[in-house]
Specification:
- The structure is a single chain.
- The protein has 179 residues and is mainly alpha-helical.
- The chain has nine helices and no strands.
- It has helices spanning 2-12, 19-26, 30-33, 40-63, 68-85, 87-91, 104-120, 130-149, 159-178.
- Helix 1 (2-12) packs across helix 4 (40-63), helix 5 packs antiparallel against helix 7 (104-120) and helix 5 crosses helix 9 (159-178).
- The radius of gyration is 18 Å and the shape is globular.
- The protein starts with a helix and ends with a helix.
Length: 179
Amino acid sequence: MVAAGAALADEVGHAQLTMGLLAERLGVRTPSLYKHVGGQEDLNRRIAALALGEAADSVGGAVQGYAGRDALAAAARAFRAFVLAHPGRYAATIGVEPSGPDDPLATAGRRLLDAFTAVLRGYDIGESDTDHALRMLRSLCHGFATLQAAGGFQWGTDIDESFEWLIAFADRGLRAAGG
């Protein structure tokens, strides 16, 4: 049912996802959903955990065998592709906080963070700067992908070209920060 909710969120947008709409899509009455989830908030949290896990798999798989700029490019491209393919489920991850260290959200979030941390191993980033570098990477990748998914790039320059420029910019910054 969570997978169906995630797919529906991708189709209609996370903000438009309701228990009633999901029940209609599944061909059941809304009360039947409460056998599986505690309500809309629980559904949203489960979709967020699913999305973070899927993004972690995508980014983690993409960076294997790569280092430095190649790992950065692979991670950024995989993350962007995930967000563009799954805008509704990814939107569910924004602003939701884990309830504790064993929360599936926390586990999936750590896995995604670990994938981006692996990228940083290819740069000489000091331990005290790792959090800053991770926030920078997340901001760049998240910002670009969510703006693109929302149709936020309306001018003529090729979007893929701009994304490659962003990767090169981040690579130069990470190399300078480590040097």
